[in-house]
Write a structure and sequence with these properties.
This is 3-dehydroquinate synthase. Keywords: Amino-acid biosynthesis, Aromatic amino acid biosynthesis. GO terms for molecular function: 3-dehydroquinate synthase activity; oxidoreductase activity. With 402 residues, the chain is mainly beta. The protein has 2 domains: 4-210, TIM Barrel, CATH 3.20.20; 218-394, Beta Complex (Endonuclease - Pi-scei, Chain A, domain 1). Helix content is 14%, strand content 38%. The chain has 6 helices and 23 strands. It has an 8-stranded mixed β-barrel with strand order 2-3-4-5-6-7-8-9.
Length: 402
Amino acid sequence: MMSLVSQIGFAHFTQPSSLSSPSIAPFRHNPCSSMSSSSSWTPYEDKDGKKSKKVWIWTQNKQVMTAAVERGWNTFIFPSNLPQLANDWSSIAVICPLFLGEGEILDAQNKRVATVFDVSTPEELEGLRPEDEHAENIVVNLLDWQVIPAENIIAAFQNSQKTVFAISDNTSEAQIFLEALEHGLDGIVLKVEDVEPVLELKEYFDRRTEENNVLSLTKATVTNIQVAGMGDRVCVDLCSLMRPGEGLLVGSFARGLFLVHSECLESNYIASRPFRVNAGPVHAYVAVPGGRTSYLSELKSGKEVIVVDQQGRQRIAIVGRVKIESRPLILVEAKTESDDQTISILLQNAETVALVFPGQGNKQLKSAVPVTSLKLGDEVLLRIQGGARHTGIEIQEFIVEK
């Protein structure tokens, strides 16, 4: 399909004053009579569950429009002098068209729905007074892109009752705006003429939404403990600190992953390292975002893994470093009550390596047991899932693993 950019010149952000009051054609579909109820809301919420993040798309590319609508984003920004383009798109998809004027964004009824601020200097950022504006939405266009000004925007608007957007032309910038100072801005105006950033941004939201889902963990009874000799084991050092009860899901078979505790607990043998999980040998699977698994040997700096606690709460963490060293191993096998299948894991045979105990209601009992103290009949936590995998993705096929 030929891109509309090749047919129609793309309008610059700052429009001539003559375009501030566009003449807008009637629309066959107008689902945005109330911007606050627009389906441009994404399912992703911040860690406190208080705010959803909004996405508006600024494009003249029909393929970008199609990809965005298919992913649940239907609010689009058009140059004020191109109402026909918005009308044409409204005839093929249910969209919410908005129009860019001088320092403002209007809806199809010429009502201001957002005020636009160009920011290129610290003084301009310092002078922003969002609460003085009548529009419920604020769109910030950071002309001199840098990370620190992005954080300054978050800080400046943290107590604002407005919905604050930032304009971004790539996913990396968008992610910084959405995460800076932990909570980020309320939304993103994604200004692109290529489909790939739309796909990347949706994948980003899917990963973050996954964090809000609680994983189902299963109790399993230890049935065998056996010294196994030497092997190459992997220590995974994260860019995040872990708390008692947290660790990584690791196992010899993808069908059952043990919750391996971090080294956050105090020990007589070695200093606490709350960023580290001594996870197992190189062949083992580890849970990563998207319902996938990765081999421990494939992890490296910058990769993402899932940190899970005793209750199944999960969060995404970035791998900072991986250490592979030859160490003595121990084999641990366990079975669940509902399944006679044996689930196994190999771990370094050391006092600092531990498996997570099942939680006892709200009681904070011992969170983990070192593999050197593990006994037959002890209960540990597993994640039971489909065993057949292709490049880490679960698939439906017959498989036998021993």
